[in-house]
Specification:
The structure holds two protein chains of two kinds. By secondary structure, chain A is α/β, with parallel strands linked by helices. Helices cover about 30% and strands about 20% of the residues of chain A. In chain A, a hairpin with a 1-residue loop joins strand 5 and strand 6. Chain A is globular and about 55 Å long. The chains are: A alpha/beta, B alpha+beta. Chains A and B meet through helix 4 and strand 5 of A and strand 16, strand 17, strand 18 and strand 20 of B.
């Protein structure tokens, strides 16, 4: 029995990219306006009762220690309750979950969930790469973002015979999808050969195995299920969600062939939604690196452990495959503005479930879409949200 | 009281710089090669490695050492906790006594003499004597191509199995300049005319000491050789037929304060009388060691100082800190003056884990694990972690901002005691693969705001090469 206590009645994002010409506030305003404009029966900004904002790395845009007060001013709603949610790469996913709980609790009927991230206002060296010097002075020294996932690729290749071509096929597929998504950072198709020949970033991952550093923002409007029809005749409901945590250091992992928190979070979400992996029509999953998507599609239960590389290479996750994954282009092509990423994924799921994904539209026979992020130190946090367009949800 | 030598150990950097490459940069000829520290090596990490090997050879537990005597011309802190960092990284008891000798290339002999006297006087039952050095010559100086790096260590005791005993010691002090650094100078200088140094300074003083020892039936000699010729002159003067020190100079160059003891260690691989002569800073000391049998560890010297990877002149300059990039580097998120380094000093330098009393799982490091990572239990007891293990998985990071230098291998390890660690690995990653055996050795993780940050790194063992 799906949860379905909260509906998504509006969703939107801005074109992702290196948005040197836009401030954090301008990006947020753009995403909010897109979400407001998407509401079928009209929406007045002042109908927002409360907001939850996901921004993971305030330091990357130079305003350290931000709280919840930046967004209301930026979108013309100064004074409303607003809370910043920071939970690593799943920050946007988790803000969505917290927003849904706020609505379901009955405290608020209409809630804005917005994700905003400035990744490029600082140089790469001062920005994301600087984490090489962050954290524990010995155990994380040199630990840039690819170091969090590349050891899984090394081990997955060792245990299951996963190849670099299999990894590359994920990037090729997601760039293909991104080329069909007007909001994607990268809109060009690439080949397996392009990926294989790109420079090594962190063995065994090469440049095109990695997502770009992207500025972006996305927003969704949540209302109580009872009031959904005031805003749209095509509501999408929150069917279920799950969160899980694991130890924060890589040397504390049990396994380097799975992201344990993805498995745990998805099991919780499936149980809450009353569905299983076989019921999911399409999924937006965390593909910060190619290996991550291969782990995701195994740990979410779409494929057997060890079979994700083969499935990707053979097109089973393409737009016309058995389970289309990252139809938006994913983090690899659409981009990974961290706090905005999960909210942008929700937006893609919303479009897919409403039949509005244009060239990227997949067949939604069961009416369920899954959204997933994993991240944090040691990939120790994952959030899974499941959406449905079924009002007759079982 | 008789002072015995229970064991010895030697160490040198793997990197080798050819004198011809140095000469080529300055329009000179050059022959031979010297050892140079990698960016993550210094006199402390070399001292650690030699001492670790000496303790192993002697069969002595680190916690049983009463006093540490360390001689180096370049302690990592000009003023600071050099001695304490070395003691902690060797897991010596916090009650350990001893001293740090510095100030010249004679520092190694001073440490040896002080350690011998402490044991003879009964103030230390077991003493660890270490001499280490990594010279940093001024670029373009005439002696640049001879400046090397290395370390030697002795475990001395009043009792223990029969091996070698320390005998006569002679010394001379004369106020002459030698290779030197003024206050605030970083690179070594040598102002003397070579003929003046040879005829009026070096030979009269060093010969006087060596000739006193030559009155005994010396089997093998460790003799100073600052320019590649004077060692042979001295050997002729004292009618020495066996000078293992010349092998040391040939392998690693002039390792400053470490050279004399390293020559002695190499000479202790057979029974007989060994004469060790060291000089520097206006002081010269000679000492006799009488080996009844080959001293444990001495036979490993050649392997311990054998070279590995060749380094070009530019790489050597960068490793010595003489070629620096312009621009800012990324500061450590947790700088060395932060509280974490106070809380974590012992567990980082001594590599400790917390073993769960309930399920046996080791959580590392203890300060961030009040609960077991396996069962969540709250009862953990501190344990020293195993130093050997195998690679579970790894990466080679190629993309990092300064001060990091790619390639940087990072390995996840299954240690022999069941603990799992993630550490940097030494080298360029080409010798790393899943399942590869590794050992942990002390290296420098960072040099932040003038402060070296030490920790253990993984090194693929030679015996398990793919």
């Amino acid at each position: 029995m799906s949860w379905n206590k909260v509906a998504v009645v509006g969703a939107g994002l801005i074109k992702m990219g290196e948005l040197f010409d836009q401030s954090y506030e301008q990006m947020a305003s753009g995403a909010f306006e897109a979400a407001v404009a998407s509401v079928d029966k009209g929406f007045e900004p002042n109908q927002v009762e409360a907001a939850f904002v996901a921004t993971q790395r305030g330091t990357l845009w130079g305003q350290e220690g931000i709280g919840g007060n930046t967004i209301p001013t930026a979108i013309g709603l100064a004074g409303i309750p607003c809370t910043r949610i920071e939970n690593a790469c799943p920050s946007g996913s988790d803000a969505f979950r917290v927003g849904a709980m706020a609505v379901a609790s009955g405290v608020h009927d209409v809630v804005l969930v917005i994700g905003v991230e400035k990744m490029r206002d600082k140089s790469s060296e001062e920005g994301l790469l600087s984490r090489a010097a962050a954290g524990h002075p010995i155990f994380t020294r040199g630990e840039t973002a690819p170091v969090l996932f590349a050891p899984f690729a090394t081990r997955h290749m060792y245990e299951f015979g996963t190849t670099r071509e299999m990894l590359a096929s994920v990037a090729v597929k997601n760039h293909y999808n991104g080329a069909r998504d007007p909001y994607a950072h990268f809109q060009n198709e690439i080949t397996v050969d392009d990926v294989l020949k790109s420079p090594s970033v962190c063995h065994p991952l090469h440049l095109l195995d990695c997502c770009p550093q992207t500025d972006g923002a996305a927003a969704v409007l949540l209302v109580s299920a009872e009031r959904a029809r005031e805003f749209t005749d095509k509501p999408v409901y929150v069917a279920g969600f799950g969160v899980a945590t694991d130890h924060p250091y890589l040397h504390e992992k049990d396994s380097f062939t799975e992201i344990k928190v993805t498995r745990m979070a998805s099991q919780r979400a499936y149980a809450m939604a009353g569905v299983g992996p076989g019921d999911i029509d399409c999924a937006e999953v965390h593909d910060c690196f190619t290996i991550t998507e291969i782990l995701d599609i195994e740990d979410l239960g779409f494929f057997e452990k060890g079979d994700g590389g083969r499935a990707s290479l053979e097109g089973e996750t393409s737009l016309t495959g058995r389970i289309p994954v990252n139809t938006s282009g994913g983090l690899l092509a659409k981009g990974h503005p961290i706090g905005a990423t999960g909210v942008a994924q929700i937006t893609e799921c919303w479009w897919q479930l409403r039949g509005e994904a244009a060239e990227r539209q997949v067949e939604t026979r069961n009416g369920y879409a899954l959204q997933h992020n994993a991240g944090g130190r040691g990939s120790g946090v994952a959030v899974v949200n499941i959406l449905t367009n079924r009002t007759d949800a079982p | 009281m008789t002072v015995r030598v229970l064991g010895v150990g030697a160490a040198a950097p793997e990197l080798r710089l050819r004198a011809a490459d140095v000469g080529a940069a300055w329009g000179r000829a050059g022959r031979g090669e010297v050892a140079v520290c990698a960016p993550d090596e210094d006199t402390l990490t070399l001292a650690w490695l030699a001492a670790d090997r000496a303790l192993t050879a002697a069969g002595v537990e680190a916690g049983d050492v009463d006093a540490l005597f360390w001689g180096t011309s370049r302690p990592p802190f000009a003023e600071g906790p050099s001695f304490a960092f070395l003691a902690a990284s060797l897991s010596l008891a916090p009650t350990v006594g001893g001293l740090l000798c510095a100030g010249s290339a004679h520092a190694g002999m001073e440490a040896f003499a002080a350690g011998t006297d402490a044991v003879a006087a009964g103030s230390a039952r077991i003493a660890l004597v270490i001499a280490s050095d990594a010279l940093r010559p001024g670029p373009g100086t005439g002696f640049e191509a001879r400046c090397g790096a290395g370390a030697g260590a002795f475990v001395l005791a009043v009792d223990g199995p029969i091996s070698a005993t320390i005998g006569t010691r002679v010394t001379r002090t004369r106020p002459f300049l030698d290779r030197y650094r003024g206050d605030g100078e970083v690179d070594n200088r040598d102002m003397y005319d070579p003929r003046l140094f040879r005829e009026e300074i070096f030979l009269p003083v060093v010969r006087a000491v060596a000739e006193q020892l030559a009155a005994f039936d010396v089997r093998a000699w460790s003799l100073p050789d600052p320019d590649g010729r004077l060692g042979a002159v001295l050997a002729r003067n004292v009618r020495a037929t066996l000078t293992p020190s010349s092998t040391i100079y040939g392998a690693i160059g002039d390792a400053g304060a470490a050279t004399a003891l390293l020559g002695g260690i190499a000479a202790l691989d057979a029974a007989g009388l060994v004469a060790i002569v060291g000089t520097g800073g206006g002081r010269t000391t000679g000492v006799l060691v009488d080996a009844e049998i080959p001293v444990p560890g001495a036979a490993l010297t050649a392997d311990a100082i054998s070279g590995g990877r060749p380094a070009g002149y530019v790489e050597a300059l960068r490793a010595r800190g003489q070629l620096q990039p312009v621009g800012e580097t990324i500061p450590m998120g947790v700088p060395p003056e932060s509280a974490m380094f106070v809380r974590g000093a012992d567990e980082m330098l001594g590599l400790l884990g917390g073993r769960c009393v309930d399920c046996g799982t080791i959580s590392t490091p203890p300060s961030i694990h009040p609960h077991c990572i396996n069962c969540g239990g709250p009862k953990l007891e501190p344990v020293a972690l195993a130093r050997h293990g195998r690679v579970h998985t790894f990466v080679v990071n190629q993309t990092m901002p300064a001060p990091f230098v790619a390639p940087l291998p990072i390995v996840v390890l299954d240690m022999d005691d069941g603990a799992r660690l993630m550490l940097q690995a030494i080298g360029d990653g080409t010798d790393i693969e899943i399942g590869r055996k590794v050992e942990l050795v002390l290296r420098k993780y960072a040099h932040e705001r003038g402060v070296p940050v030490y920790g253990f790194k993984a090194r693929a063992t030679k015996e398990d090469a793919p």
